[in-house]
Design brief:
Elements: E1 3-7, E2 10-13, E3 18-25, E4 34-39, E5 46-51, E6 58-60, E7 68-73, E8 78-83, E9 92-98, E10 101-102, E11 106-111
Parallel strand pairs: 2-11
Antiparallel strand pairs: 1-3, 3-8, 4-5, 4-9, 5-6, 7-8, 9-10, 9-11
Length: 112
């Protein structure tokens, strides 16, 4: 069974930082692209960042470029999202996923 367990969410002030982690299981982690998504209240889920299996290529939504960094540790089946210079509009539930599915998410709330 494919599973993702996200952690590291919480509250931060604008300009602050948070680091999200996601442990994956049930598939060959080191052969798959990993993704971080987010969904804000009343909005559709959006793709925030992706990282290829070899970590050579990463992609980001325009709204987070230069502020967020996605990395992975294939030995630990874990993907990370370092979020710096947070903005109130980053408030959302953040999910990691692959293979067309994702976990239960972790809440990130950014106050002014």
């Amino acid at each position: 069974e494919v599973q993702f367990v996200e952690s590291g969410g919480g509250s931060a002030q604008a300009g602050g930082s948070l680091r999200l982690s996601c442990v994956a299981s049930g598939f060959t982690f080191n052969l798959n692209t990993m993704n971080w998504y987010r969904q804000a209240p009343g909005k559709e889920r959006e793709l925030v960042a992706s990282i290829l299996s070899t970590s050579v290529i990463t992609t980001y939504a325009d709204s987070v470029k230069g502020r967020f960094t996605i990395t992975r540790d294939n030995a630990k089946n874990t993907v990370y999202l370092q979020m710096n210079n947070l903005k109130p509009e980053d408030t959302a539930v953040y999910y990691c996923g692959a293979l067309g599915t994702w976990g239960h998410g972790t809440q990130v709330t950014v106050s002014k």
